[in-house]
Amino acid sequence: MSEARVEKAKLSYEHAVFVGDDGELAAAERELDKVEADLALARGRILHARFLDDRREDPRELALFERATRMYRTLGDAAGEAAAVFWEGCFHQIVRSDPGRALPLLEHSYGLATSAGDRHTQWEVLRHLGIADHAAGRLDAAREHLEAAVRLCRELGLPAAVAANQVGLIYIAAAQGRRDDAAALAAEAYDTAEECGARRIMQQVAEARIQTMAPDTDHGEIHDQSAP
Questions:
Q1: Please, which contacts does 140-146 make with residues 24 or more away whose CB atoms are closer than 8 Å?
Q2: pLDDT, tens only, 69-126
Q3: Cα separation of 70 and 115, whole Å?
Q4: For site-directed labelling of 33, which of 57, 80, 162, 179 has its Cα 20 to 30 A away?
């Protein structure tokens, strides 16, 4: 898609220079703005994935997400803006550990994604709202958000994301005294992750199973896998 937009811009340039008709230039610029926004978002996601491995903040990450947000907003691309705003919120929540900054962004992203019919961004926001609720001890709300995320992921055919969200539900079930539910979730999540080759999620399920089966367990931790 990006290659097609760049090629179209090239043809618009040639048409303006050789034919003398510059009527296509404005549309070509918008197409290139979309490419730039997509590229900024993609680069930011790569940096976030690196953070998940080494836990070292890269100052470029937030700037890329904010640039993508501005460009999508200017373009009137609600779905693109929803995704970029989500990643801003994810950055503040996961990288900066700042729920005060993260939650308004996540909620705004969910509203944009819902209006645009962007179910992929919706499930990602629901997951991170669940993470926020879990961290704050709001277990019923966390369960509601994560179960909604699981349903969307099933509908979208994202088995690794289903299993990742179930990891959080394992901890919540155990914290609420629903040990049988926790064990069933662990078995299902492990099988799902194994079937789709999500080895990191398999490890997280194994950790959750060990922690939730131990006496006097705490609420555990929902791992961030926000860039599947």
A1: 142/168, 142/172, 143/169, 143/172, 143/173, 143/176, 146/172, 146/222
A2: 999 999 999 999 999 999 999 999 999 999 999 999 999 999 999 999 999 999 999 9
A3: 18
A4: 57
The structure tokens listed for 137 are 């001890």
Q: Report how far residue 63's alpha carbon sits from residue 67's, in angstroms, rounded to the nearest whole number.
A: 6
Cα dihedral 172, 56, 149, 130 in deg (nearest 10): 40
Running DSSP on this structure, what letter comes out for residue 29?
H
Q: CA-to-CA distance for 12 and 64, rounded, in angstroms? A: 28
Q: Are 109 and 89 in contact (CB under 8 A)?
A: yes
The two tokens of residue 36 are 């730039």
pLDDT surpasses 60 at 221: no
